[in-house]
Amino acid sequence: MAMAGCIDARALRSIPTPVADALGACGVCSLGDMLARPEALRESLVRLDARDPEKRAAEMLAACRAEAKEVDDVWGSSASALALLQRRPSHPPLRLPSRALTALLGSALGAGGGLLEICGVPGAG
Question: Dmax of the chain from CA atoms?
Answer without folding.
Answer: 74
